[in-house]
Amino acid sequence: MLFDIAMLVAGLVLLVFAGDYLVKGAVGLAENLGIPALIIGLTIVAFGTSAPELFVALQSALTGVPDIATGNVVGSNIANVLLVMGLPALFSPIHANQRGLSRNVAVMMVFTVAFIWLISDGLLSRLEAGALFGGLLVFIAAQVLRARAAIEAADDDVPVDYHEEIGEAPHSAARIALFLAGGIIGLPIAAHLTVSGASGIAASFGVSEAAIGLTIVAIGTSLPELATSLAAAMRREADVALGNIIGSNIFNLAAIMGITGMVIAVPISSDIIVRDNWVMLVTSLLLAVICFGKLTTGKALGAAMLVAYGAYIVMVF
């Protein structure tokens, strides 16, 4: 039991560091190759920051514990709204007044509803996963075109500074190689430790692997987003949390489940279909109401979100 806990903790910690190394190495390489910053921010950074969850999902599905994969994605989307948004709101109000929020949250709702519908028969097939991933590629292409048009209209070619999210990237060939190797080698090891530890804990407690994926693994893989949101709240810049949450939820469903499902068809737990999918839908609708209504999430709503998340954790177990 203690060994399983140690494996899970070690896996989650290594996921964070290996994922960070992979993103910074890939960004440094892309910058050296002269790839435009706009493309780097909307593609390489977006995909790279989802790499830890992707490796966990692939490891889970390929080793016969797909409930951890699906549970991690669904649980992360729930945690992103109730925890990652709720906790920072206790320290600084979150204003839904950023440009493009309504459009992006509408896209998130489309992917959420599509995902729930596609897995309602208990299986995410390769074709269905391909449709999710294809939709993501269309969304990214539209984002790139829209961003380019906005830059040209403003006669301003200064790109969005994604370094605020990832920090400075390496640029020497040796450091880029080191960072890439650290990410490529570390992520599979971290995913193996995470999935093995989570499976062992589920067996020890006599709970389902889906429950562990929905809670412990989901919270663990959401910690980077939570840390970023809390740091922004301390700087009185918590509004950026909304965009990060929406983007993370889209990538969880379309990239992680899309790529995993294209590699191997993913069977879905009945508990996730009849309970957790609908919790995810309700939390997504809450986020949509906040964004479309341009509402402010303050201490009261933030506290209510945390209470709701605590109740959800109790319900899962």
Describe how the helices and strands are arranged.
Blueprint: H1 2-32, H2 37-48, H3 51-62, H4 66-82, H5 86-89, E1 94-95, H6 101-118, E2 123-124, H7 126-153, H8 163-166, H9 173-205, H10 209-234, H11 240-263, E3 266-267, H12 270-292, E4 296-297, H13 299-316
Antiparallel strand pairs: 1-4, 2-3
List keywords for this structure.
single chain; 317 residues; mainly alpha; A middle domain of Talin 1; two-stranded antiparallel ribbon
Describe the structure.
This protein is 79% helix and 3% strand. The protein has 317 residues and is mainly α. The chain has one domain (2-316): A middle domain of Talin 1, CATH 1.20.1420. Strands 1-4 form a two-stranded antiparallel ribbon. Helix 1 (2-32) packs across helix 10 (209-234). It is globular, with a radius of gyration of 19 Å. The protein starts with a helix and ends with a helix. Mean pLDDT is 90; it is low at 155-159.
Briefly, what is this?
This protein is 79% helix and 3% strand. With 317 residues, it is mainly alpha-helical.
